[in-house]
């Protein structure tokens, strides 16, 4: 009886598709190398060697361009454009970064980029949160159709929308205002972000309806429920949407070039200003300015990388 009981606990018989299937613990996990082979001395050596090689290769692939970006700014113009490139500056020139900062007015372009990025963030938080809250909790008529049409725009390449978007900004419907050359030309198009609306709606869907119903019974309005209940709970996903919004405006080049370049030189973003400076500026100064432009985004990521992952994996509320 003991043998039969032990066999019964180790073996399960299930039926799928009309046939009996015998499963054992751990049979559902299949890998290229079994745990027995990996735990041997030879297996451990091979495993650690392959793991180290993969880590080193991926590190070189991702860190290599950053290394050359910052070191080329320390080189002379001749050394910076040399082919093949040198692995390190033979005669470092730290003054290149100071010259690039003063000659290209990196501080002014940095302020303009921050101004555009946080302005776009403010518009996105207002309109995208309202849209996601309406689709998730207010349940408007044809709400699913509207959401489907929003998500369908994610399948359209961004380059295809540049011309219609430019025409719309040049002559707003009904008012016929021309926003070209103004900050609103960068802020307003960033509001229509279907991906951020989808992220917010998915998180709002995970909020228990009991909270909303209890607040409604107490006499809270829809706006008060959003402000007092939904937004405090949704801080992780709002942080993620904010990061995506800031990075999208910071790294954008084509759209600021179309709506700002040539209209006001004092309002150019980092990417547009550095591109314009390529005509008549030494190459090492351009590289140094590009390196300084990349520093804020790198620091921003290092500080908020955990917030990004926590917000993307936050799918519900656990008590």
TrEMBL record:
Question: tRNA processing among the record's keywords?
Answer: no
Please state every residue range assigned to the domain named ABC transmembrane type-1.
110-304
Q: Which GO terms describe its biological process?
A: transmembrane transport
Q: Which PROSITE patterns match?
A: ABC_TM1
Q: Where in the cell is it found?
A: Cell membrane
Q: Which domain of life is it from?
A: Bacteria
Record-level GO cellular component terms:
plasma membrane
> Where, by residue number, does the polypeptide cross the bilayer?
45-70, 114-133, 145-166, 186-204, 225-250, 285-304
Alphabetical UniProt keywords: Cell membrane, Membrane, Transmembrane, Transmembrane helix, Transport
Residue ranges annotated as coiled coil are none
Q: How does this protein sit in the membrane?
A: Multi-pass membrane protein
Q: Is Protease among this UniProt entry's keywords? A: no
Pfam families, from UniProt? BPD_transp_1 (PF00528)
Q: Which SUPFAM superfamilies match?
A: MetI-like (SSF161098)
- InterPro entries from the UniProt entry: MetI-like, MetI-like_sf
The family line of this record is:
Belongs to the binding-protein-dependent transport system permease family.
Write the protein's name: Carbohydrate ABC transporter permease
Name the species this protein comes from. Trebonia kvetii
């Amino acid at each position: 009886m003991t043998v039969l009981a032990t066999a019964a606990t180790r073996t399960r018989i299930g039926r799928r598709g009309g046939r009996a299937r015998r499963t054992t613990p751990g049979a559902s996990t299949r890998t290229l190398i079994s745990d027995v082979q990996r735990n041997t001395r030879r297996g451990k050596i091979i495993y650690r060697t392959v793991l180290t090689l993969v880590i080193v290769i991926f590190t070189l692939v991702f860190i290599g361009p950053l290394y050359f970006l910052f070191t080329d700014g320390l080189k002379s113009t001749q050394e910076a454009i040399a082919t093949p490139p040198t692995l390190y500056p033979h005669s470092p020139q730290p003054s290149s970064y100071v010259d690039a900062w003063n000659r290209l007015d990196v501080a002014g372009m940095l302020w303009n980029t921050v101004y555009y990025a946080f302005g776009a963030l403010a518009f996105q938080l207002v309109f995208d949160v309202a849209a996601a809250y309406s689709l998730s909790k207010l349940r408007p008529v044809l709400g699913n159709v509207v959401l489907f049409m929003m998500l369908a725009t994610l399948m359209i390449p961004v380059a295809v929308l540049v011309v219609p978007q430019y025409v719309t900004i040049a002559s707003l419907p009904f008012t016929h205002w021309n926003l070209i050359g103004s900050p609103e030309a960068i802020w307003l198009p960033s509001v229509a972000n279907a991906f951020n609306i989808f992220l917010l709606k998915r998180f709002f869907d995970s909020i228990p309806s009991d909270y909303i119903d209890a607040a409604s019974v107490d006499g809270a309005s829809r706006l008060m429920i959003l402000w007092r209940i939904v937004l405090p709970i949704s801080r992780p996903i709002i942080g993620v949407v904010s990061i995506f919004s800031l990075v999208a405006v910071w790294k954008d080049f084509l759209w600021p070039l179309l709506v700002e370049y040539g209209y006001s030189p004092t309002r150019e973003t980092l990417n547009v200003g550095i591109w314009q400076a390529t005509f008549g500026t030494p190459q090492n100064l351009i590289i140094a300015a590009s390196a300084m432009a990349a520093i804020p985004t790198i620091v921003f990521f290092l500080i908020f990388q955990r917030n990004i992952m926590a917000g993307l994996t936050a799918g519900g509320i656990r008590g």
